[in-house]
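Supplementary Methods. Inverse-folding protocol.

Structures were first reduced to a discrete structure-token string of length 279. This string, shown here, constituted the complete conditioning input.
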């Protein structure tokens, strides 16, 4: 099915700039000194008021350890991933949150897994009911409410479905953490006769942030977006961990791997290597 090619990128030029500044611990004054760009201009761009010229973007990128040419393209809104089709994945918006949820399945739905139960519970239950899915797993990428605040309702409606998340974030689902399967980096979950789901621990956005690989599709939560990365909010992990985990665990997968992020449109590893200014 075609997945919303018209949806804008999750992060604006200002968002990218803010995340890189925060990750590098560089404030507006310091960045202005390093680049020769007026602080007032940088402050305006951080508020998405106007944008840098390509040459200004290159100067910013060099000061922030970003890729100069990729950031110059972002400054001009010059890239968006094309529409991507994946036949065994269904996307749904997690209203009222601005986040993505997914169901992926085998055998026409006889085995199914839900990524990130969040938003209005009745919406999720309707999606699962309308698809006649036999839910085997409830997979949670990380602890933030816009990715797991409907866990109790979905688990109550599907008591045989196994909740899966990393131990570092499990407290977010309260008492349900006791019944959750706390998978570790690289572990695989059986799924059908000839398929499995592999968890990659990709911390930095949170300490328990995880990505789930099904066939040639990786659900990245808020670790990696089309053209950007998630904000660094881990307690024991942070910005450098996000970048290192993307390079060592995600970018080592085949280039045609489809990436389904927690926000924004789908992309591929090949596209992110070519267009993401953080790499």
């Amino acid at each position: 099915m075609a997945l919303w090619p018209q949806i804008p990128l999750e992060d604006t030029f200002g968002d990218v700039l803010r995340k890189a500044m925060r990750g590098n611990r560089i404030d507006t004054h310091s960045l202005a000194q390093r680049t020769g760009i007026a602080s007032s201009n940088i402050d305006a761009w951080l508020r998405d008021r106007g944008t840098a010229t390509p040459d200004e973007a290159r100067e910013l990128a060099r000061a922030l350890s970003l890729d100069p040419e990729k950031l110059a393209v972002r400054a001009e809104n010059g890239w968006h991933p094309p529409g991507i089709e994946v036949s065994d994945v269904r996307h749904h918006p997690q209203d009222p949150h601005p986040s993505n949820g997914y169901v992926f399945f085998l055998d026409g739905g006889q085995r199914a897994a839900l990524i990130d139960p969040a938003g209005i519970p009745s919406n999720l239950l309707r999606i699962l009911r309308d698809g006649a899915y036999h839910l085997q797993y409830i997979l949670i990428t990380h602890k933030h409410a816009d990715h797991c605040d409907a866990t109790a309702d979905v688990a109550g409606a599907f008591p045989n479905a196994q909740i899966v998340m990393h131990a570092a974030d499990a407290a977010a689902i309260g008492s349900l953490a006791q019944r959750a399967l706390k998978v570790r980096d690289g572990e695989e979950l059986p799924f059908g006769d000839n398929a499995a789901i592999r968890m990659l621990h990709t911390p930095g956005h949170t300490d328990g942030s995880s990505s789930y690989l099904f066939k040639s599709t990786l659900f990245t939560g808020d670790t990696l977006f089309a053209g950007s990365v998630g904000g660094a909010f881990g307690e024991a992990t942070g910005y450098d961990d996000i970048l290192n985990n993307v390079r060592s665990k995600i970018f080592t997968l085949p280039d045609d791997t489809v990436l389904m992020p927690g926000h924004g449109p789908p992309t591929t590893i090949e596209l992110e290597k070519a267009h993401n200014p953080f790499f």
